[in-house]
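hey all, quick one before standup. I had two proteins in the batch that finished overnight and I want to keep them in one place so we stop losing track of which output belongs to which input. First protein below, input sequence then structure tokens straight from the run.
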Amino acid sequence: MNYYVAKNNQRINLLDIPTLDIELFRAQLALTNLRPLAYFGADWGNDIKIFCALADDEKGEILVSSSLINKSNKEYESITKDNHHYHMFERELYEQFGILPKGHPWLKPVRKNLDSYEFFEMEGEQTHQVAVGPIHAGVIEPGHFRFLCQGEKVYNLEIMLGYQHRGVEDLMVKNPSNSLVESICGDSVVAYNMAYSQIMEELTNTKITTKAKLIRRIALEMERAAIHIGDMGAILGDIAYMMGKDVYAVTRTLVINTMLEISGSRFARGLIETGGVNFDIDNNMSQKITHVLEGVKKTVDKMTKTALKSATVASRFEKTGVVSLETAQELNLTGMIARSCGLEVDSRFDFCDEFYKDFKKTPFRATNDAYSRFKIRYVETIDSIKFINELLKKLENYKDEEILVDVKTDLIPNSFVVSIVESWRGELVHVATTNEEGKLSRYKIKDPSFNNWWGLSMALRGNGISDFPLCNKGFDLSYCGFDL
């Protein structure tokens, strides 16, 4: 068999992963319908080892294989020519290890782009370019957007990132910690910390309590609800519907202030620790969460229905920034952006998380546009509140359990672990390997923004340049989660 089949958060022996000839490795990835979760290189002495982890969403399995490329001949025929899912992965591999995917249609820098970057060009009457960033008004992070336009119509949007590339993956190998990982992407603290902790617990054979697992998921859903509510307000602000902007801003604050009461941080920094969690949710806190979220649900429900009845809102949302289902599939979009295009991927359910298996998501009819990206946030916020209430009920059955257990310091040698967490943006993937001495040898992170930035480019095609703020906020992608 050409793959090792594993589950989410399952440690496998590094030596059991099949190592294929590069031509066979390339051929099987080019032809498969399974989407890549991770595709990356690792230093292997005289060689570079390429690992690929594929998602079998129907079976809830992860298929892992690898190949070796000698450092003296670092090239192979590009997979992207036959399977566009590898478009960004091969560019990143080339940038990090110099492995040339021959024939790649768009071999440009991913992060190390500051010295030279050739933008796409277009000629014709009345064509012009509009450059925005990397420095923006307000407090948003740096990114450069290059619009190719004819008049006001956008023919192409090219996005250049990498302005705050910090070498996070190397830092994670040298000095891994919960405090480091939760600082990588400030609006996804719970998701990042949860993925890292699950990897380290698997590498140390640490079994945490059910109570700790439940508290983590309660925090994860609170993070999802809080950011979605804030984004709904920001989206309405971009179309000057200021009442909605202000109402959602106040309502989001209620959620994050509740996180503050739980953990001492509005973004749940310090809540999750390898071995469990640092803060309990007792009966009084559980009742407080339920009460606050009941009010939040009523406000979000009323404000959303009011906003969507507005002709002004509808005219700005509907048919703006359309991304087809076919495009979403081809680009391997993930998370709520994929779901807003009708592509139903959700790692909470696809990878059989035991605490979600009995939950039923609200059916969603995607319209593939700005309206759909706004509405999906509303639906997922209401679902998150429902899930939190169910998780709190389950928590009552484990009130006498510990919230934090001791963790061994030694990591199991020659190990490979994939941890997938459905962050509010989508599928967050962390992968770790250890060497024969039991030391971390590679730590790979794939934020959902890695998949979805190209979706934003597609959303702008054929739209007016004035639609960019609405589309950009509808995607709300991470700069720091991408730059790493």
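OK second protein, same deal, sequence then tokens:
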Amino acid sequence: MALREGGYGQYCPVARALEVLGERWTLLIVRDLLCGATRFNELSRANPRLSRSLLAKRLRQLETAGVVERLDGEYLLTPAGQDLHSVVFGLGGWGARWQFGDPREDELDPELLMVWVQDRLDFSGFPDRRIVLEFHFRGDPRRYWIVKDALGPSLCTHDPGFEVDVLVEADLAALYQVWVGRLDLGAATRDGLVQLLGAPSLVRRMPGVLLLSPVAPLVAVAR
């Protein structure tokens, strides 16, 4: 009997699951869907090293497997997809405990960090008006702005022309470690790895604005 393409030839639920989830990038796409991404462009921006053609292929495979369904241009997890929450974050917990250390140089992408941060900001403690955060990473000439208005936060890679409320000056590796829960923001600011500059009343609110990565609690427990 010929082996099914992509199959392992084993009558085992682990093997069957790997036929769906074992391809490169697939679990990271599921991770982002579990964290709230629904649009193709959102998934593409969250995985900049994944080509758009391969992303489309992986999404089709997940649809065929009944993990994802497409509705009005959005990719939504089915009950089978939602049931992967414990699998994905369980894997994240294992990785945090046994495989996680200092960030590697090739993992420090400032724009990707800003894409992630943009989706995890809580401005409820700020004044009900436009809020502008500017981010500058030491040694990097590029700057990033997150502008919160009535439509929500948006990331800008060019100066939007608005007055900045809080400037975040940071070592990129340090802010990544804050983001994933490996370094406390208060400790990072005390050590000068991160500086928050702006009106004191707004700077004091910043620890409550940055909600951190969904995997940060796993990293904190492992730490």
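Flagging for whoever picks this up: The chain has two domains: 13-83, 105-222. The first strand starts at residue 68 and ends at 71.
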